[in-house]
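Data card: per-record layout.
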Amino acid sequence: MGRQILQVGNKVIEDAEVLALLSRYQLMPQLVKNIILDQAIADISCTQQERQAAIEAFIAQLQITDTNSQQAWLRRHGMTSEQMADLAVRPVLLEKFKTAMWSSKVDSYFLTRKQSLDQVVYSLIRTKDLGLAQEIYFRILEGEQSFAELAREYSQGVEAKTSGLLGPVALSQPHPAISKLLSVSQPGQLWSPRPLAEWFVVIRLEKLIPAQLDKSMRRRLQDELFEQWLGEQMEQVNLLQFA
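The structure for this 243-residue chain is written out next.
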């Protein structure tokens, strides 16, 4: 007979049941993830000032700044004060781990990702009538009517509400066929109607916004590399089945 570790209502949980319950409630991947992260940051340290700042931010975010509310939170989560402090500092250690592992790789990774990180603003009109699409294209080309006016009048998608204008969005976000077209476009370039699923679309690139490797982008890419690594680590773990 296992050791009783928890009682919920009339249900008494024994230690031997825990793994089966984690599997049943689909919490095993979360457990594995956190074990991997704990191993990763085991040798990472922070200063006492960083630790104290992290703890203060943690309790402020949870609004448990007084002793009574802190004790109530600890009881509710089955934690000690030291465990709560470790939990508060964990994000700081994780950021240090990410920086140590991937900060030197961000520049080259950015070059491989840049095209999909570039943003575009473009105009779109779609209709299921090829003849109408061709007429719209020539009206715009000849300057008879503006793209915005024709989009409001004829486009059959949500873009009609924005005068055909979409973006800024990452170049990778639109339909792959549209992304490919925009990637070889010059600002102001109008494309003749082309089929896309059940539609015929008229597209014009309005603006290209190149991605910049600034501080926020560096952090985003570092996080991407971290998530890729974490996914690979989790795939290597053999999750046993528990009856």
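Known properties of this structure: Residues 122 and 206 are 5 Å apart (CA to CA). The chain has two domains: 4-104+221-235, 119-209.

See the next section for split statistics.
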